[in-house]
Amino acid sequence: MPEGPEIRRIADRLGKVLAGRTIEEVWFAFDHLKPFEARLEGQKVTWVDSWGKALLTGFEDGHVIYSHNQLYGVWRILRRDVEPAGKRSPRLRLSTATHSAWLMSASDISLWHREELDQHPFLAKLGPDLLTHDVTSDNIVARLQDSRFRRRRLGALMLDQHFYAGIGNYLRSEILFFAGLHERYRPMDLDALQCQHLAEKMLEVTARAWRHAGVTNLEVWRAPMIEAGEPRGRWRHAVFNRAALPCHACGTPIERIMVTSRRLYYCPRCQQDQTSA
């Protein structure tokens, strides 16, 4: 499933095609949404945004289309006179004079008014989005010390969408590696410098994944691997999906464990576990 940076990139692409343009035709696959087609046609899209793994498309009258790609959903942007090929089922189409944005295979689509988004059953439970909500390192430090989160192990906390939305499995491993922290640490175990460092790495690694289409590894480490012709799966991340391969920083073999029923990768030397059992 795509994580926050991938959804942010989709929102960016859709925004370039839709934002500021009049939607000439709207089509919903679901019967309960069809009455809203005529209401949205002729309006301009004013913004396209992401919040965690959800995507929001705002119209000038205040209506917002909420969509979630779930496991199989995908957006496709095509010239208006071109229909998407393949076996995926179209669920939503927004057409301007020149292009159409198609949402394929996803089933979680609904229409809201902007003032009502805080009542959405999914969005109401989400924490801030690191790429969308102007989050600062000071914001993160304060949230780490919040009573809701300070006693949680980092390995579980990083995946909790109530904490920050959009962090998924690869980002969790990468953030903790670059912060130099074992997943067993809790925010309450960290001193002020460690908290600040973790906050900075949460922002830095997530932004790097957004800028580089899911790549979180440092350029100094990945460039020689790319030059040597190694596959993307080897050089994309610093630790994620690299079990038994040497750590870029120290050469120690990367280890894989299961945390919250999902795989986590870490360097046992760079991320030593100094917590009590």
From TrEMBL:
<dbReference type="InterPro" id="IPR010979">
    <property type="entry name" value="Ribosomal_uS13-like_H2TH"/>
</dbReference>
<dbReference type="Pfam" id="PF01149">
    <property type="entry name" value="Fapy_DNA_glyco"/>
</dbReference>
<dbReference type="GO" id="GO:0008270">
    <property type="term" value="F:zinc ion binding"/>
</dbReference>
<keyword id="KW-0456">Lyase</keyword>
<keyword id="KW-0378">Hydrolase</keyword>
<keyword id="KW-0540">Nuclease</keyword>
<dbReference type="Pfam" id="PF06831">
    <property type="entry name" value="H2TH"/>
</dbReference>
<dbReference type="InterPro" id="IPR000214">
    <property type="entry name" value="Znf_DNA_glyclase/AP_lyase"/>
</dbReference>
<dbReference type="InterPro" id="IPR010663">
    <property type="entry name" value="Znf_FPG/IleRS"/>
</dbReference>
<dbReference type="GO" id="GO:0140078">
    <property type="term" value="F:class I DNA-(apurinic or apyrimidinic site) endonuclease activity"/>
</dbReference>
<protein>
    <recommendedName>
        <fullName>DNA-(apurinic or apyrimidinic site) lyase</fullName>
        <ecNumber>4.2.99.18</ecNumber>
    </recommendedName>
</protein>
<keyword id="KW-0511">Multifunctional enzyme</keyword>
<dbReference type="InterPro" id="IPR035937">
    <property type="entry name" value="FPG_N"/>
</dbReference>
<dbReference type="GO" id="GO:0006284">
    <property type="term" value="P:base-excision repair"/>
</dbReference>
<keyword id="KW-0479">Metal-binding</keyword>
<keyword id="KW-0255">Endonuclease</keyword>
<keyword id="KW-0227">DNA damage</keyword>
<dbReference type="InterPro" id="IPR012319">
    <property type="entry name" value="FPG_cat"/>
</dbReference>
<keyword id="KW-0863">Zinc-finger</keyword>
<keyword id="KW-0862">Zinc</keyword>
<keyword id="KW-0238">DNA-binding</keyword>
<dbReference type="GO" id="GO:0000703">
    <property type="term" value="F:oxidized pyrimidine nucleobase lesion DNA N-glycosylase activity"/>
</dbReference>
<comment type="similarity">
    <text>Belongs to the FPG family.</text>
</comment>
<dbReference type="GO" id="GO:0003684">
    <property type="term" value="F:damaged DNA binding"/>
</dbReference>
<dbReference type="Pfam" id="PF06827">
    <property type="entry name" value="zf-FPG_IleRS"/>
</dbReference>
<keyword id="KW-0234">DNA repair</keyword>
<keyword id="KW-0326">Glycosidase</keyword>
<dbReference type="InterPro" id="IPR015886">
    <property type="entry name" value="H2TH_FPG"/>
</dbReference>
